[in-house]
Design goal:
The protein has 143 residues and is α/β, with parallel strands linked by helices. The protein has a single domain, classed as Severin (3-Layer(aba) Sandwich), CATH 3.40.20.10. Helix content is 34%, strand content 29%. It is built from 4 helices and 6 strands; from the N terminus they run E-H-E-E-H-E-E-H-E-H. Strands 1-3-2-4-5-6 form a 6-stranded mixed beta sheet, sandwiched between helices.
Length: 143
């Protein structure tokens, strides 16, 4: 349970594990149920196009997401995958929604083992591929 009293649905944890262990999804987007008592799956996708992931984030509503971020490590060393956690809280979202999402984030984040990087997004420039790539590559060098 989070400070806001919001729990995490089994479905949300299963979807995350399907992404992490089963490579079943490229991304999972989470939201709160209508009662604001549980974090549930909003949508899952195996689509590898990052732009389609960004289009799935609503312009005026908060979401959490995990994305199996694949990138080149340069000099022909191949590709790496990092699981990235997104706290999507656009400036245009209702204040109450932003407050509930902010206070529920830690409970979800703690239950997602294996996430390498956290991204806080308030507008699309902060979640653009290049911005995330820069953060992921930086965290990769420090391990």
């Amino acid at each position: 349970m989070s400070r806001s009293g919001v729990g995490i649905s089994d479905e949300a944890l299963t979807a995350y594990n399907d992404l992490k262990l089963g490579n079943k999804y490229k991304f999972v987007i989470f939201t709160l149920n209508d009662q604001k008592t549980s974090i549930i799956v909003d949508q899952t996708s195996a689509d590898t196009d990052y732009e389609n992931f960004l289009e799935a984030l609503p312009e005026n509503e908060c979401r959490y997401a995990v994305y199996d971020f694949e990138y080149e490590i340069g000099h022909g060393e191949g590709k790496r995958n990092k699981i990235v956690f997104y706290a999507w809280s656009p400036d245009t979202a209702p204040v109450r929604s932003k407050m509930v999402f902010a206070s529920s984030k830690d409970a979800l984040r703690r239950s997602l083992n294996g996430v390498s990087t956290d991204i806080q997004g308030t507008d699309f420039s902060e979640v653009a591929f290049e911005s995330v790539l820069e953060k992921v590559s930086r965290s990769a060098g420090s391990h």
